[in-house]
Every structure is written in C-alpha cells, then in structure tokens.
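ping. complex inputs:
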Amino acid sequence: MALDPSARPISRRAAVSALSAVPAAVALSTLSIAASACQGADSPLVTVSEAGAALPPALDPALVRSIGQAWLAAHPAEATPEALTSALRGAQRARRQWPWQPLPPLTEVIHEEYTVGATSLPDGWVIADSEARCCARVALG
Amino acid sequence: MHIDARSLPNDTIVDADLCIVGAGAAGIPIALAFIGAGKRVVLLEGGGFDREDALQALYRGSLSGLPYFPLEAARLHYFGGSTGHWGGYCAPLDAVDFTTRSWVPGSGWPISRDVLDPFYAKAHPLLDLGPYQYDPAWWVAQDARREWLPLDRAVLHEKIWQFSAPTRFGSKFRAPLEAARDVTLYTYANVTALEMREGGTAVESVRVSHLDGRGFRVRAARFVLAASTIQNVRLLLASTAQNPQGVGNAYDQVGRGFMEHLEMPAGSAVLLKPQSMRLYRYDFGVTKTRAEIALTPAAQERLGTLNVTVAIEGMPAEGEPRTTFENNSPTDLEEYRRETRDSLTSIMKAAEQPHDAASVRAQPRVSLVARQEQAPNPASRVTITRERDALGVPRADFHWALTPLDRHSLRTMYLTLGREFARLGVGRVQLRDWLRAEQADWPPFISGGWHDLGALRMSASPRTGVVDANCQVHGVANLFIAGGGVFATAGAANPTLTIVALALRLAEHLKGR
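pong. complex structure:
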C-alpha cells in the first residue's frame, strides 16, 4: 500500500468524531430504507371502496359521480386509478409529521383541506381536493 | 289636517316652518315627530292615497348601466311611498358599516352606529317590530328549539333580522296625520323645483305643480327632501336657476355612488345531517325573527370583502330560485314567495329529520341567498336627461355599475360558507355557474333588493358627499335630506329600519334648532 506523504497524523478528536459518525450514518441509512419501505407500503392503489368510505355516507351517489366526472374533466392527467392514488397518497404523506408514521385516513386529510381552504369547484361544488379525487375514483369505478 | 292640493287656487303661497317633500318611510316619521311641537309643518305628497298610473309614470326614467328594475315600478308614488310594497325585513346596520375600511374605497360615515342606536329603538314601534334586540344569543335563549349551526365564529356569525307585518305607512299613519293640527298633508302636490335665495345658499321656496298645469309655492324656514333617492336627485339637479350645476352639487357629488343590495340566490347546499333550522327558517308572513349567516368584521378585513350575509331558504320544487329581477316587481315576488312557501317550508323541515343513507335522494337541498352591500362607486350614478316628464321635470337616467370588489366579496362568502359547511359535516355548497370564476361577467339576471341607496351620501366633506352628519346639504343652510340616499355605505341589512332611524334623528335635530 502506498502511503500518502502529505497525510497528516490523525488527531484524537478527529478520530472520535469519525468513529461516532459511523453509527449515525448507519442509522440514517436504515431510516431511509425504512421510509422507502413505508412509502411502498403507503402506496397501494386507492380502491373504489376506500375512496367511497372517505366520503360522507349521506352524499347522493349521483352527486358523487357528477363531482368526480367534473374533476376528471378538469384534470385529465388524473384519469386513471394510479394517478388518483398517487395524488391522494401524496396528500396523505404530506400531512404526517414523520415518514415512519402511518398515513392519516383520507377523511382526516379532507377535513384538514377544508380547514385550510384547499378546495376546488368541480361543477361549482366547494369540495376539498382530496374529496374531489375520491369522487373521481368512485366515478372511474 | 289634509288638503287635496288640486283644490288650492293657482299660485297660492303656503307658509310653513318646515316643509317635508315626500310622505313615505322617511317623510312620515319626521311629520309624526312634529305633531304637537308647535311648528307649522307642511307635508307634500305627489300622489294621492292610492296608486294612479299617470302619477306613477312621473317616475319613469332610462337605464344605461346594468339591467335594473323599471324606475316607475321600483318606488311607489302615493301616500306611504314604497312601504306600500316592502317586504318587512328589518335589521340595523352593523358597527363596521359606519367605519372607514381600508379595503373598501369610499367607506366610512361621519357618524357611528352608537349615534343611531337610540333612534333605531324609537323606530321599532313605528314598524311594529319586537324589542330592539339583535343579539342572536338573546333570541336563541327565548326559544329552546332554536339551535345554532356550530360555525367557527371567528369567521362566520349569525345576524338577526326582525320582520315587520309589513307595516304600510299609508294605512297606519293617515289618521294621525289628518288629525294633527300643526301638520298639514297636501296630496297631489308634486314639487318640481327648488327656488333658491340670492347666492344659492338657502332655499326660499319650492314650486309645486299639478298635471293640469296649475301650481303653488311653499315658503318655509327649512326644507327636507324625503322623496325617493332618485326623485331627490332629480330635484336637486333640475333646480338650476341659481346653481347651474344643481343644488348641493358644487363638487359633482349629487347622483354619484348609487348603491343597491345584491340580493341573489348565488348558491345552494345539500344538507348531510339532521340540523334544526328553526333559527334560520323564514316563512313569509309568519316568521318574526330569523338569523342569516354573515362574515364577521375580522373575516371581512382578512379576506378583503364587503359586508355580506347569506340566508338559508328552501328551494322551489322545480328549477333554481328566481331573483327579484326575474320577478319584475315586489308584488310578483310576494306572490312567488306565497306560492313556494309550502314547499319551501317542507324542505326546511326535512332538514331537521334524520337522514337515511339508503334514501339519500330525499336529502334536503336549500337555497343560499346572498344579501350584500355594494361598494361605493362614483360611476354608479343617477343623472338627468333632456326628456321631461308631464310636469316638465327632466327624467332620470340610472347607470348601475358594480366593481370587482362586489364580485370578489360575493364569491368569497360562498367559498367560505362552503368550506365551513363541509368542515362541520353540515353539507356541501354549490355556487351558481356565473360565480365559479373569479373573473367573469355578471349574469343577465343580477338583481338588487329594490333599495335606492347612496347618490346623496353623508360625508364630512362636500368633496366626497352631499349631506353632512346632520343630513344638511353641504353649502345650503336650510335644506336637509332624509331617506336611503344619504347612506354612505349600504351594509348588509335591508334599509327601512335605518331610513326611519335616520329620519327620527333628523327630526330631533330640526326640533332642536
């Protein structure tokens, strides 16, 4: 092995610091893997059933479909279950504090969106964006 | 005392201490306040005791702005004035309405709400209203069946309305005025000009004309113009003998800043859970008190809106609710309300029943009817034209104009209500198609509440209005104005109660001079 002639003797402090960084790096790496795993686990397709369960039970099914279709007409890029899932899961992820926490229920996300004013007007209805996507998911079938 | 002015010899001169022009919601309370006051009061009414086509036609005028009601239909030209067809809605203006709001250009009165409070209280018995009490909590405490919607009261709150019978001033106050010894009511007495003293800083007399070409004069120490807003404007602008630009119009303020209330069913809601509507429900001719939902003053400031309320009402069995404009006249509107009352009441009652998810088709849908002030707008104005009426007075042109702030406020209110209804699980709100975009045209059926406000606005300076804090025309020592014309801003309340309160305040001011 060739020695670097410019290398300076390592100080005690630097050595301690370098050693302590190892477990931190390992820990961060583990967290990152865990977060990725969580992300994968967090991203199953939003089913019609899950989307429907996030909507008020008393909401007229015809109205649900009408709102959903209006949303899809305004957002053609979301006209697949996968695209709607991506948006809905993204909204759920954005509302948790730490990546390892479970995703909040869609009902909670929708409530929060009404509180902060994250709404749209599909067919003129004042609807939280995630609720409109749930309507769209139901409309897609 | 009552005199049919047609019986007076031509060119008669009548002398008085006080001459009131117009016997409606503003003029009659002033005359009543002077009964027994030891002054000679003349009350001039252009019409008789009932509607007559030839006299009503004197109010005809042109429209050059947004679509509006025919001017000859919007105000009634006989004793009692437009109280002959009003709906009885009463609420005082809010304290915020009198303040200068940085986000509402031209806002601010030279008086505050507490100045008017004692006169609001005195106006209540004239209008056959309940106690002068507009605290929603007080009304809820009177009836345990009234329940609040669980609104975020930092943003939305309830505003109380009381309902007059509605009191028809022509019926209620004819006898006491005819019996009064110091007040003389002249019917068929249309004022066609103000005759000014030399220099144009005071009124000497008013010229009164009949359709048959004869006429007389009234000389008085003081004059109050209490005809409707547009007729008061006509009179001031047409009286050019001493003041070529019209009386009180040194700064081109007469006629500017005309305001209406935007009373429009601009949205609706489906209700998703049982909710008592007793506090909010209105049955025409039955309800004495109800609440509408309003933006709080803090929310108005934060959201940059005008004052606006929304009434929860039932939906007609078929189609969207109509606006007052689509009904053409208040009489039609009353008929419409009667026709739909039963169905509306049943819908509102349905809102209080438990919903069965399996029968969601039956979920109640309610109409959300806005009542919003119009931003003071100099371009919204009344002028006079070259065409003259049968008495030779130039006819009015009304140019109704709105601003982006009016639209922003209306839309913001419905968005706010929609989010709040949904957050609480109360229901979901739908905006009418013309309100969905922030920038869009007004619909063809935009409508007001048949309220003629502003155009003779109260202001501290003659450069920004027509009358001072005492309703005296700027620069004219003995001329005062009563009525909705002096409103500096319109508030989100029907104006009759405030018109009467301002008239009573003016009467007290005049008696003290």
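The interface with chain B takes residues 56-61, 63, 111, 114-115, 117, 119, 121, 123-128, 131 of chain A (CB under 8 Å).
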